Protein 1
Amino acid sequence: MSQAKEFDAFEARRLGSGVVLSVAGGAVGLVALIITARQGVTGWPFVIVFGLLIAVGEMVQFRVDPSRNRAPIATSASLAYVMLRGPAVGVPPEVAQIVAVTGLATLAGIFPRAIAGLPWDLVISSRRVLSVAFAAVTFELVTPDSLYWNGSWTHAVPLTGAMLLAVLSAGLTDALVGAGQDTERYNRPFPAALRDELAVMGRIGLAMGISGMLLAAGTSLIGLWAVPLVVVPLLLTQFAFRRFASAQRTYRTTVRSMARSTEIAGFSSPGQNARTATLAVAIGNDLGLTPARMEALEYAALLSGVGQLALADPSPGGASLLRTREERQRAAEIGASVIERSGVLDHVAEIVRHSNDPYRHGRASNADIPLESGIVNVALAYEQLVGEGNGQSPAKAMESIGLGIGAEYDPVVVESLRRVIGRGFRF
Amino acid sequence: MAVVAVSALAVLVVSLTQITFSLTTLALALLMLLGGALRFKVLPNHPAALDSVALVAVFVIAGPWTAVAVSVFGYVAQLRQPSPLVKRIFNPSYRVLAAGGGGAAYALLGGPVGSEVLDDIPRTVVAAMAGTIGHQLANALLLSLILWLEGQVRVVDFLKSVIGPTFLPMLGYSALGVLLAVTWIGGLGIASCLLVVGPLLVVRWALSQYQAERAAQAATMRAFIQVIETKDLYTRGHSERVSAGVGMLGRQLGLPEDRQNALEHAGLLHDVGKVGVPTSIIRKPGKLDDAEMDAIRLHPARGVELIGNIPFLEEVKSAVLHHHEKYDGTGYPAGLSGTHIPFFARIIGIVDAFDCLTSTRSYRPARSVDETLAILVQDKTTHFDPELVDAFVQVIQTQGWSAAAADQPAPDQSVQVSIDHDDLSLGTGGGASGSAAGPA
């Protein structure tokens, strides 16, 4: 009963910021809409074309990294709409109108996805409305009305600087919000989450921003002709990204499937590898590892048992054959050499190799052994105690793991495990 | 070759007389240099430089003659790589001529130049597209000419595999060239490169990542298969050879690229379910009893269970499940017959049997390729799809088979009878008896 309650609290906390963000995005959009309705709309052709672009971009969003969808065309288009200044545009749109158009078009783009049953995410879209609003305010503040694309570098260079500032402010807003959400959702330390968000922003985010700048400059100079000229290359870019994203997904599921082979061979109980990996990932998040290290950690936890395949058959009933440390270390060594053979997972192999080393003889004296090995070691032990069929209570398992601190287990990792379990982590 | 070089030189000299030099010309040369340096794969396996994008921008900013003059700079980035003198002369020459082709198309359609551009955008866009097409065509023509002279690669293959697939993407990216020119004229000058290079770098990153992920997946699957094969010394390398064999047959049958990849994956993974068969049964010398045979018959289903979540084509899974079906319906697990057996499964069945017969087993030495082909032909109506057998025999006879050979263990003299689940009750003398070949 108390466990269920804890779980509910856990879930509610996850939703917290999402609700706040959606409400904030909606409120900003609504206010902007009202202001726009009272002031009247300027530049209808641009409203329609950019609105359409944002909506279509939202419709063709796709998943690039494991956890989130992206709509690069919508982002670029909305940022471009922020930064129009030039002979072909006439009166540039007001901040309120920019936000209203972005908000309405985003909703229009999500709607068909929701009807078709495709994945969509109101929170991510609200984040865009908010960061576009920030970009619009920044651009409005730093750009005097006299500045526009007139063919002279004295106007072009300051304008480009202003656009860069606007794009950066949007990126920074989104990174801060994203880091906050990561902290909340995965219990990552905020600085680590912010560092990762900024790294992503520096790559994909900046590219979307620069595409937006190109679209803005082009539209300012030659009007709506610039739209197809930017959108065609953007579509090609998106196509390249989709291929990449699907190859990445295929690879990830391949590793997961390979990991399940120990279950099919009877070396581990169903779901054991997946449970170990979930716990290892939770600990890694708590310790704020970088995305690359997180990925290696997950694979290592999934594949930690693969060395057993090269050993003899499991005993009937699937109980672990490997009772002694020497046997487990030998299996880990074999597993590591197997993983190494792929030639692309060297770091994973290194983690697996030391995943059964006791802390005192391993990491305590040899700094080359990765922290991740200690994480996998603890996750394996905890899963053995609590996982399906073994049925110890988390408190009891924590107690027996606590006995091994410093000798068997890395104190840093055990502390992290205690926090993770304390926050209500259950298999 | 000499003709190309001389005519390029002539065009270059004429262009130099047609243009006025200024700081802009220098900046444009820099732009071309950048375009040539930024090589990347427009599609996987199709490397191309982005000088086409830079070239279009130069058409629009300063006109075709300048473009021809500065096109030489697109080659500078390649100077780092060592190459024979002939190439050192030919490569910049054909660049000049290809740029000339593009420039001619641009001028023919009356593309505006410099500040006139902002007044006549539609014509600029149309002329720029024509310029790109002209550049690409001249490029393809010159390269085809060289390939034809060298006679190493067939021109048709080159056009089909390189020029064809990259044509439309290059046309799309050249739109960025027009925008580059517009922002350049709009006052940004050479700084406008920054706006264009950023997005292009991201495309390059995505494409290289795509390649890396694909390579990683292939390597991981292969490593994993090797682990499973450690269960049985005698089947080492079997999966990779089957994958290579079905690959040869697939190409013979002219499968499209995605299906060809899927077929090779299926060949590699067809026995993955063996991981669920106890090692003691796989290695057991002597005849297997019914229960042990049942355990072996489970392996196709186990394989599908294992790879079920991987987003392969559906054909990969059905091939793994049905690769032990036989044409006359006596195979397992479903007892399908004829063309009810999935196409890929029929292909794998043939190559699987072929590799098994040409490898050493504990109870017999390897058979020769010719002997094995004769066995396949002899049994082609009972076990296999006859048409596919004929195709396979033809492939092996024309291309040969890099046989198992090498590091195979010798047959174990002490073993009298044994059954390999892949071995067939084919031909005479040795091999498995009925029970391995399916229900009697």
Note: Residues 111 and 127 of chain B are 5 Å apart (CA to CA).
Protein 2
Amino acid sequence: MSEKDTLIVGIETSCDETAVAVVKNGREILSNVVSSQIESHKRFGGVVPEIASRHHVEQVTVIIEAAMTEADVTFAEVDAIAVTEGPGLVGALLVGVNAAKALAFAVDKPLIGVHHIAGHIYANHIVEELTFPLLTLVVSGGHTELVYMEEHGSYEVIGETRDDAVGEAYDKVARTIGLPYPGGPHIDRLAAEGEPVITFPRSWLEPGSYDFSFSGLKSSVINTLHNAKQRGESWTNEQIAASFQASVIEVLVGKTMGAAKEKQVKRVLLAGGVAANKGLRAALTKACEAEGLRLTIPPLKLCTDNAAMIAAAGTVKWKQGRFADDRLNGHSGLELN
Amino acid sequence: MNILAIDTSTYVMGVAILRDGIPAGEMRTHLKKNHSIRLMPAIRALFEEVDMKPAELDRIVVSEGPGSYTGVRIGVTTAKTMAWALNRPVIGVSSMEMLAQNGRYFNGVISPFYDARRGQVFTGLYRSMSNGIIRESEDRITLHDGWLKALKEQGEPVLCVSPDMEKHKELIQQELGDLAIIGTEIDALPSPLELARIGMRKDVVTTAHEFSPNYLRLAEAEAKWLEKIKDEKKR
């Protein structure tokens, strides 16, 4: 380890994954341990906040130790502890935040608060070094945002969902057609096998807006199925999934392309758990190629919630000297700026 | 033995340090403010004040519940993470046992309690003996009126101590009558120094990984899910 290397420990507990990672120089993953609670939440058909918080408390030191052991580093070599301060489930965030504060105090290291979406964006930095200006489409179970960046650590949200996050819409539609939680991957798989024969609405909102809305689409799917059933007609799940996905992807890609043009960026990133969606990856890749834009999509392990991305985003704040103090708190609705 | 004790199981925030088993300092507030923001600054300030470093600690003691789920989690997460980082044991102490210490010189039974909503309380039954405060009946979550009726039948004076006394005072006096002894507002606050003292005497110590809160109650969603499973099995 050279003198100039930066070693950051990242901690992430904003939803149902307890994750800890050690990242060198903001880009090199030394360890990235993720303990998912999804098996526990499946029986409830979604994440139950109180249960998520309980699991985080049980797991947190186990996962910190696993990450430190795998990275084969000591706290003496670590420069700072970075932790997700929001947005997310507040009770879940509090476990990570308080663990990070206790750890920073015990091992006498500085503390850094990281925005969860900044983390998702910086997952791309681990894959390919970021260059600016750039535009990121953030898509997950809790977020749907278009974020413009002029330089490291500077974020401008130019569009966001006004109701459901895209991943939420996937899960709800999946439930409607009887698919298990979480439904996103099932819809993506079925969509690849069906034709988009039903025309669901495209929610473009007012001209020039980069905001999103998916609740109308979700209702439209439910109503269409209901009406079809009453008329004795039926569609296959593959057809429904393909039609729903076609609507979602057209809007996501269309707005991303529009924003990229207006902001005159040459670089586009895809981030968040829904970035694992094959249909979305293919459509965005095609659109970016047509416009001559460089596109980065992280591998699956860095798309879903993880702590390497938090350590990567934390490294930027470390370089800029933007530390948190002992009063750092968890915020369910933290702004990205 | 050098000990750090942490209690955030109610609105009371308590932090205490024993040096060589002797109280060196404590910080205690009774405010409706956020533990997550205030706990770590309080711990750091107290260490500075008593001129101690975390590495000098022998063990960390924390109120493990019952109490506010979020409050208990903040204390437990802080305690177990510090304990893991310093490679020291963490000792969980029942928040009821901690509160019962306030009746050390009381001749009768002690019923500490926290409000648990919908007429329920977290409580337990303790008695002061020559060798300390002994638990006579397990901590539990129960309907307060039923609990008080059972205490009344024992016919002994009962010291009721709770930071939530205001809400329950009438019921206690109604059910226990002359047997009810109600402490002052000061007796009602859990003491982190008492917590440290209990923790110092415990032989049962756990490693950080094994340690989690004792909520005394399932999460609501889990309780409902178990009900559903039970119903399905009956059919």
Note: The beta strands of chain A are 7-12, 17-24, 28-36, 80-86, 111-115, 134-139, 144-149, 156-160, 267-271, 294-296.
Protein 3
Amino acid sequence: MFSDAINALIDGHIICRVTKPDLFDYLAEKSHRDRVSSYLQQIGWRVVSTHNQSGYFLVPHRPGEDTKSALNSMHKKIMGDVRPMIEFLTLCLAATQSDSVLRPGDHIPETKFAALIDESAKRRTDLQSLYARLIRGGGKTNTTEMLRAVLRALEQRGYLVEHGPSRELFVATGMVDAFHDLVDFLVENTPGAEETLDEPEVQGALL
Amino acid sequence: MTALTDIPRFLSLLSRNADVIEATYHDQSVLKTEENEAAIRLLHKERVLSPREDGHYGLTRALRDVLDDLTQRQKRFAIKGNIGEEIDRMEKLLTELEAAAVEGRHEDIDRNSADLIQSLYDVRELIDADLLQFDQVMTSRFSDVKTIDEKMRQNQHYLDRADRLRKALNRLNRTEAHERFSRRDISSAGHVYQNVISGRMEAWTTSLLEISDVFASYMFSFREIETHTRKIRAFAKFLNEGGEPDLEQIALDRPLCNALMRKPPPGAKGWLDIYSERGRRTLAVYCEDLKPIEERTKTEREAGQRVILDSEPKTDDIVAAEELALTYLLNHVDKAGDWVSVHAWSAERDDIRPEVFMEQVISWITTEEDEQLYQIVFDLDAGLSPKTANQRLEDIRLCRAA
């Protein structure tokens, strides 16, 4: 298990209960995690978890000048996901008419989801915009086809995995929680973003 | 006028002006004159009378219903205080009036016209009363109840009522209604419809839209909102409204966020073990079954018509060198397992020019579906400002998607 965990982490996976449940349980034990982390520190990496311990992944042990260009390259890749993921999460909220944002382990049944999007012109427009953002030059116009391409693209980026024999069900991975952590960071550090949270969208605001 | 002590004062007002009220009840309306001006002003203020056309006033619906019950007056298509049903009644009265007009029944025309006009005023009154009540509820924010659940139920009730009112307004404003009321032989009712209903439609619709928006936003405020949901919604709103156009710079300025420093998957996931005896033996076994990869040979054929016996002559397209080269390029990208520069790769070939080949690649990216199998990066001319409208493409880089 020790070597499997190290190899999976080195391969750049986020280890979560959805993608690799055995390794996740192994790393959830602090003693195991410390052992893996101290091993990886010797080659410049350390194990960290998402804010609520739903996934484990590697970050540079001592980010400094020598790793700056590598960090910039990582930033560029990860930041490219921000706008599409924000659009995808808000589309999920609108389609399911839910107040609970997508979290690891949540299911996205493809056919049902496509039907929910088809119910509203605004949701269809939002899906088209998301599709255009994720699939460069994609020529699909059918809701089901566009949604499938979007879900596939997010699967390639590690946010979802396809699940079940019917292959119509996607499940959110621990990467989604890492994305929430990233949004927390961006909200705290982007001028003007934190003020938007002051709007009274809390239960009991009218009491 | 809600306090208990106001009731005797109100009953006294009715008693003092009983003659005006009775005359208005029997004549459908009363004309304001110098003699009754003070009484009418007071009765209007206390919502006993409501204004009509040309200085006339009529009894409000609530008091008229009380008097109808008292006098046992028969009302045709009688209903009790629901806008939808009042509109049903108004449409039936309109149909009756149209029939009387067509058949020339003058006595019925006068009677039906008076009833229809009364019904139009009733509809206006019900709509105004509903909008007024919505306004009061919005201002008070359901202050008479204290629990979230109760407020939610009330809010949902008013949302449903607002929706019913919207449907009622749509019914009243249909083209068919306008056409029916514009008939010359029912002009008196048509005139009232124009002034009382049609002329107020825009103000009613605007007011109703605002009310529905407020109730919908209340409903959202009543619901349990997760912190993450709030954050995602707020940040999405921030980005949509212009927000920070250069998020990447934020990340570069403050790089110490774990989620940003996550180790990405490498392009290649290992290497062959050709350095140990055991590894070499295993590989040798695999290699015995391998067949050499054949690069597609370039087919050249003379241009012109292709003639086959007993069939129509046809012209074959010559496969362009760039098209063949695209196949070789994609094979090369598949094998490379890393980013491949299209410009550098094509520059090494004698059969194609990089500039022409880049156009072929762009055409493939924009028209073919298998480009989803590849990650694509467009490198723009660094010498030009990013703000310049026309950017020059310097290179395209491809990598097989994981």
Note: Residues 201-207 of chain A have pLDDT under 50 and may be disordered.
Protein 4
Amino acid sequence: MIKIGLITDNYHLEKKSIQFLKYANTISDVSIYLEEDYMIDFSNYNFDEDIFFVKAKGDLVLNLVKLIEKETTIPVINSSRSISLAFNRFLNSIVLRKAGIQVPNFSLNPVGQSPPFNEYIIKNIIDKENYAFNPQIQKKEGYLRVVDIRAIDESSGNYPKYTHFYFQDFIKSKWEYKVYLIGDDIFYFKQLPVLINPDKMKSRIKIEKIPELTEIAYNATEAMGLKLSSMDFLKSKDGKFFLTDINSSPNFNYIKNGPKIIGDYLIKQAKI
Amino acid sequence: MNIGILSKKKGKLIREIRKCLENNGHRVKIFTLNDLFVNEMLLNKDFYILKSKNLLYLYAGYFLEANMIPVIPNTNTSYVHKDRVESYFSMKNLGLLCPKIFMGTLKTLKSQLKESSFPLISKPIFGSGSKGVKVYNSFQDFNTPTENYLYLENFIKGTHYLAYFIENEICICEKRPLSNEHQATELIKSDKEIEKYLIKWKEKYNLLFGHLDLVRETKTNKLYVVDAGTFPEFSNWKCDTDPALKISDLILNKYHEVRK
């Protein structure tokens, strides 16, 4: 029987992985590496798993993944590089743009300094914690300015992580397009933008394949090295899709049979 | 040429490098954190010197390189030196001896470490030098509650060295354990093994200059690398060469080589 190592944390284990584990336990032998309980000894890398599945993005998780990648040939989905890039909005904007993907204009400015565009969202640079987008919306001189409270948290307090804000040019869009990618399979949804309706699931509907999004999704995940991902897109007035967010650890419970699709995919990718 | 220097502080070395470059007819701007805007505005320089490894400077470096503006030293090399786990793997792959490393919560470290692992030293996972380090001699020293994950290394008891290189010139000093780069050191004549380590490290990353912190263990006489840096202050450089002048020349030559 194939052995899957699930590298996760308490939050993802309890809130996001129950359905996956239920299915995975029927087709494989699953061992769990829990961030809160695991000590990494970098001289010990005798793992007997055939594949690792990473469902978290904490520091210990990422370094455990690095150890497995550097010292073994066991496949890990997703890789440490791709996870690190996905939660760093600034770095993934650079990588995606370099790969020819359309992302909104962005700028890193010292706190208190305005960006070179009129309408913007200030987002947290590192999107790693398990709490959601928390916007403060303002209209100044007729322009829309949105601040995610998580960005304020990141650059305030006694030990601010950053002295700068990440600004993203605001793209007006009727719908937000959500694309899930599992290997070569893509699933398409649309929903009202979170700024209009914070309950994203309420307006979410499954939609037919959009060839333009398919191409962007493949190119974006290839540039980032992601095998599993979800991506958010906004469509501008002139019909261009902008990739505004890319995630390495999406909730696949939102897809019909998501946990089964993931489990089957991991079995196919396992070390032979 | 228009040259940008990405540096958190306008310290002595950076001021002198700027002077050398300006004396050669170049226009130089130092970007401290207050005037660092990472967007298209940065793209009006011919190249940048990456002095600080603060995250925002690494971000600026990646941004510039993605836009075909050379950054010296190379951004990813600076990142590898700054991230202790990346640095550990890099040294290990080169065959350089490093202390054993561990990572976990206070709770897991207390329950899973062996008594024989002590003494240990905790360090910020993303950092260099002696800032934020603490020595643990036994389990009793794990007495400060923290939610964070601790990165620990075996603390090697022995003679500590600060070893610099600028191109082919090497300067090795003995230093007090856990002292920073600026504290007093004593020049030693030579140590062939340290020199070998420096050359291997320099060649692996094609470095123009840099430093390694090393410890020769008293009990075994084995040589361990405990830290690496791409752009030290050279405050303990004891050779005749002027570091600022030499570094400026090396950087200009590197820029011309990259442009070709």
Note: Residues 106-169 of chain A form one domain.
